Request: fold
Amino acid sequence: MSQKNNDSVSIIPLGGIGEIGKNMMLVEMNDEILVVDAGVKFPEEDLHGVDLVIPDISYLLRNRERVKGIVLTHGHEDHIGALPFILKKLNVPIYGTKLTLGLLREKLKSHNLLSRSYLRQVNPGNSTKVGSFKVDFIRVNHSIADACALAIHTPLGAIVYASDFKFDQTPIKGEMTDIHKFAELGDEGVLALFSDSTNVEREGYTNSERQVGQTLNNAFENANEKILVASFASNFHRIQQVFDMAVKYNRKVALSGRSMLNNVKIGRELGYFEVPDNLIIDINEINNFSPDKVVLLMTGSQGEPRAALTRMSRGDHRISLNKGDTVVVSATAIPGNAKAVGHTINQLFKQGANVIYEALSGVHVSGHASREELKLMLNLTRPKYFFPVHGEYRHLHLHADLAKKVGVLKNNIFLPDLGDRIVLTEDKGYTQGTVPAGRILVDGLGVGDVGSIVLRDRRLLSENGILMVVVTINSKGQVVAGPDIITRGFVYVRGSEKLINDATERVEKVLSKCEEKHITEWSVLKSKIRDALDSYLYRRTKRNPMIMPIIMEV
Reply:
């Protein structure tokens, strides 16, 4: 159902509700669709082998002629990462700030999509027209430069979308969240506020990014050997502070990690870094300098198995970690990564490094607003309707409770499911049906070709292994070779001869009976082999390996 008049506006979340990641929201008005953000979500443990999770955009594809453009809040993966996959099917204008588009341009280039896409830059504090939508880009503080909230103007009032923000009173670049603009919108009348719920469990205010600078200064001041700093490659303010400390303490900086190298290159080209020409050296030059004269700035703060920091903790990286080196893990663990991060930190300590990490010091601060800042955003904008976003369900419920305390009417607070169409009018808001929504799995070059059956098989393989039965038959269904049993991840064959021999005998009996009854249909033979082994293997081992009969004909 499309939106065809000025009396109402429809909101449809396709991601970022009940989850952290995969952010995408649709605004429908005057039979036009405006898309806000298009992010990815990183797979959880149950998604074996999956690389990325992106939103289901089948509704957009069915209504492609109505889609007027995509507006982006900032350059984090959970807000722009799905675009290379989406733009292969939906080629529309993209609007964002200079850094956001700079990071996106590099992603599109790697997917050979840059020539097909047209990117339109909007500076913070300015507005643009997207179809009949007027969109204000409002500067906010976050853990990446050039982040913005959006005000999407409608005849019923502005829709304010503030998915990632905080109020930093002493930001690195001196550019604060534009509090005056939010207050101005509140005076004019805000129809709906969509607000960041990530830190709703934290009381008070989120600390300033400058606090990290103090901790880094202490680390540099007390370090006598190499300094290794692991951080998110997108946190330009954090990277700039590392550069500043290196200049102050007369150290050279080497970069490690593809995203770190790419982002520093992009940041320097776009003017986001102030770096002396001779500060950055190639990583191959690091041994040309005394250990107390170098800093290694890298990715790997999430304990990724192949990341430089993780490999150094294991001792299998070309740059060795020596006793007395200082390692600063300047990031917090993304949900699901805590175990890997903890293991890496343990290994770093075991190697003799002095490790500084979030649990012990102010080496990282969040980019998201805490409870008092969330109240401030509500009080500045004074919305008629409120949607907590960018959080798991507990975050959304707590944020909804906070909004009630601030004065938003209970009936005007919405916690929709993905795909719900919420219609907002001057008098009321209500749910009116749903559109297809959910997750599309990206696995290698495949997009959407991994479904529940494939995931079930991967889970089964990871938990119980596989047992293959190889049989060769002739055109009359007579066995000419086999059965041979091969296992992987189930049992060690040399230590389980009796089990394998007994299983082989059971298959031989099944095949003999099939031969007597002239059964030659492969699907029937495979089914009977599985039936013969399934309950038997579980009874003997209390495990259910995947049983894969392989029949060849000669």
Observations:
- The first helix runs from residue 58 to 62.
- The two ends are 58 Å apart (CA to CA).
- The chain has three domains: 8-204+366-443, 210-356, 452-553.
